[in-house]
């Protein structure tokens, strides 16, 4: 079998094809003189300029100087902070010592206050006991005395005239037994124009006060004038006359407060008997003896 081959072509066709070689300007080994700037086979690439050694030395020196300055500034700030911290610590120690001293003084003051409060409580208890004792002694001395208020003062007044006025009380108040001269221990008018009569017995005083209250009660029911100077046949315009026990200062104050609560309708009635103050909360309630102001306040609430 014959093989027919095609005839070879021209030599120009057999020669290798011309290839374009691309060169880069970044290569330092290239001969820049032999290369044309207009050659299309070259690419224009920016050349990297290397830093000189002297510039690196200057930059390192500058960096070291800046580091030293920063370190110096940091050291100065640290010294300032350390000094401030030491000052604060010293102040804190002083404050702590001051607080400890104040705490000790505070405890001492508390102990002193507690001691004073205890002593004050004891003194108040003792004073109260003494006041009660004095009131009891004073009430005992006044147990036979009574007071007559609003009795007109006479032009000529002495103990004899006052005694005669007192003796006329028995007939004016319709007492069962007239008052004898011997039953009047003493009679006088004090600075408040009140006549104080001291009898020899407590029963005579109580009988006279009881007759006085019954007399006014009857007159009040009959809507007549209460006991006054006209009933004693004294000259001048009639004046209402008030007869009561001779109370101690404490009992007089309690009775004043009790009558105030009666007017305010917190209590139904208030009266005295044998120098003691009694009140009644309601009409049917039992009488209550008042010894202290606090008892009256609690009862009147």
UniProtKB/TrEMBL annotation:
Domain FP protein C-terminal residues, every copy: 248-299
Name the UniProt record assigns to this protein: FP protein C-terminal domain-containing protein
Keywords: Coiled coil
Coiled-coil spans in chain: 99-147
InterPro entries associated with the record: FP_C
Superkingdom assignment: Eukaryota
One protein family per Pfam: Baculo_FP_2nd
């Amino acid at each position: 079998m014959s093989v027919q081959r095609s005839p070879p072509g021209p030599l120009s066709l057999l020669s290798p094809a011309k290839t374009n070689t691309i060169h880069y300007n970044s290569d330092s080994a290239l001969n820049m003189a032999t290369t044309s700037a207009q050659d299309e086979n070259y690419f224009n690439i920016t050349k990297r300029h290397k830093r000189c050694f002297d510039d690196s030395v200057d930059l390192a020196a500058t960096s070291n100087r800046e580091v030293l300055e920063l370190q110096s500034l940091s050291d100065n700030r640290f010294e300032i902070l350390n000094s401030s911290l030491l000052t604060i610590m010293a102040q804190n120690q002083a404050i702590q010592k001051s607080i400890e001293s104040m705490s000790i003084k505070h405890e001492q003051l508390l102990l002193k206050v507690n001691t004073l409060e205890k002593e004050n409580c004891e003194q108040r208890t003792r004073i109260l006991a003494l006041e009660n004792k004095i009131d009891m002694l004073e009430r005992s001395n006044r147990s036979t005395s009574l007071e007559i208020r609003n009795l007109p003062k006479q032009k000529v007044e002495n103990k004899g005239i006052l005694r005669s006025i007192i003796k006329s009380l028995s007939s004016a108040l319709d007492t069962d037994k007239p008052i004898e001269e011997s039953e009047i221990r003493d009679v006088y008018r004090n600075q408040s124009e009140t006549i104080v009569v001291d009898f020899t017995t407590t029963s005579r005083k109580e009988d006279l006060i009881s007759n006085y209250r019954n007399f006014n009660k009857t007159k009040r029911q009959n809507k007549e004038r209460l006991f006054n100077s006209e009933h004693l046949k004294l000259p001048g315009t009639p004046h209402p006359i008030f007869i009561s026990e001779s109370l101690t200062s404490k009992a007089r104050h309690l009775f004043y407060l009790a009558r105030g609560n009666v007017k305010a309708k917190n209590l139904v009635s208030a009266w005295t008997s044998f120098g003691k103050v009694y009140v009644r909360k309601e009409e049917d309630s039992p009488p209550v003896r008042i010894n202290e102001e606090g008892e009256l306040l609690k009862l009147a609430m």
